[in-house]
Amino acid sequence: MSFPLPVRPLRSARLLLGPEPVGEPGPCDLSAAEIIEIAEAAGVRGRGGAGFPLAVKLRSVASAPGSARYVIANGEEGEPASVKDRFLLRERPELVLRGLALAARAVGADRAYAYVSDPAAARRLAEARGGDLAGPVAPVHIVRVRPGYVAGEETAVVRAVAGGPALPTVKPPRPWQAGLRGAPTLVSNAETLAQLALAVRLGPEEYRGMGTPESTGTFLVTLSGAGRAACLYEVPYGIPMRELVTAHMGTAAGVTGMLAGGFAGGVLPASGLDLPLTHAAFGAAGSTLGCGAFVLLAGDCPVGVAAEVAAFFDRENAGQCGPCVKGTAGVAEVLAGLTAGTATADDVARLERWAAALAGRGNCATPDAVTVLVGSLFRHHRDLVGAHVDAVCERCAASQVTADTKFRISLEDT
């Protein structure tokens, strides 16, 4: 294992296993309908954010008007606290390419792309591409892009692959309707495609043997924070967050909260440890599993954490429309004022009002993430927000807010 972070299974290991078994059915051995039926029967859901059913996306692209089709493996990991896609692309590129080939077969794609910013991932994909995992179905082209938070948004992916900037476009149309060169295009996260390859390898029944009926299989979780070294885990859906944290730290007693699902899931209190790792449970808590990245907090002030994340969003948004340029900046300014002890009660009222107004606005999903972030403060930490108006927070005063974010996990650029 050459990956620079510890990688461990919890209860099970599927994605963390070695290369593909010799002699298993390849993409050309299955019809398009069979591949889609397996994805549906196995309950494969997206691992990049919203957990959307993969079979629905496959059918949408396959049945869209037009003769040309494209598929893109999205390996641009813009979430600062996530490393899962870089692990798969560096250490299990064959699995991602097999899933890409299966998706290409399922939708009848003319060409496939692997979209990455990590140099090591690009090299490993190029080496693995020399085999027969994807070539017989559709040629695979590797596209390198500069890393960025919005660069992984699906319309930004399509725009960059076409030679433009990695910035989101107005929706609709979505890529499955009109994507690359105006043709129906499947944009799927690297882990999602690896999961499709697993579902075909294992079969729907065995695949569903892990997880829950609604959230099937296993997924990769990046766990960091609380003074411990970051680690990548493979876990089945449905296990309690507390079990994962205890396995990581030896005890969950010192954990006072967490950033959930990457930066898009808001700041949850310690009670979030009692949630099972399912889309439904985190959604009901006003959060999300997102990309499976969790930053554990141990005594950190939730307001200071939110200010750090908002400053990152303000720097990393697409800068193409008012909700990002002005709305995100306004939220970041008020949160920074709260940490500095200069914000007023009127500022807090505006913060809550602005956050609600940002939802669903703009080309990229940054305003939605800001809404969840601020919403989590008022849902779980309202009294603490008010306390920052009345007095300077000692915890915030001891921690400088930076747009580069102290929550980022860095891997060597080799």
Quickly describe the structure.
This protein has 414 residues and is an alpha/beta fold. 41% of the residues lie in helices and 13% in strands.
Walk me through what this model shows.
By secondary structure, the protein is an alpha/beta fold. 41% of the residues lie in helices and 13% in strands. Helix 1 crosses helix 4, helix 4 (93-107) crosses helix 7 (190-202) and helix 11 (302-316) packs antiparallel against helix 12 (322-340). The longest helix has 19 residues, at 322-340.
What would the keywords be for this entry?
414 residues; de novo design (two linked rop proteins); six-stranded mixed beta sheet; four-stranded parallel beta sheet; iron; iron-sulfur; Nuop51_4Fe4S-bd
What class, by secondary structure content?
alpha/beta
| Mass-distribution shape | globular
Indicate the low-confidence ranges by residue numbers: none
Residue fraction in strands: 5-15%
Strand order of the largest sheet: 1-7-6-10-8-9
Write the CATH fold name of the largest domain: Rossmann fold
* Largest sheet report: 6 strands, mixed
CATH superfamily of the largest domain: NADH-ubiquinone oxidoreductase 51kDa subunit
By DSSP, the count of extended strands is 10
Oligomeric state of shown chains: single chain
Instruction: Give the distance, in angstroms, between the N- and C-terminal Cα atoms.
Output: 15 Å
Question: What is the highest CATH level, the class of the largest domain?
Answer: Alpha Beta
Element-by-element helix/strand order: EHHEHHEHEHEHHEEHEEHEHHHHHH
Tell me the radius of gyration.
21 Å
Name given to the CATH architecture of the largest domain: 3-Layer(aba) Sandwich
What would the average pLDDT be, to the nearest integer? Answer: 91
Number of helices: 16
Helix content percent band = 40-55%
Number of domains: 2
Family: Belongs to the complex I 51 kDa subunit family.
Pfam family, one: NADH_4Fe-4S
Domain NADH-ubiquinone oxidoreductase 51kDa subunit iron-sulphur binding: 303-348
Keywords: 4Fe-4S, Iron, Iron-sulfur, Metal-binding
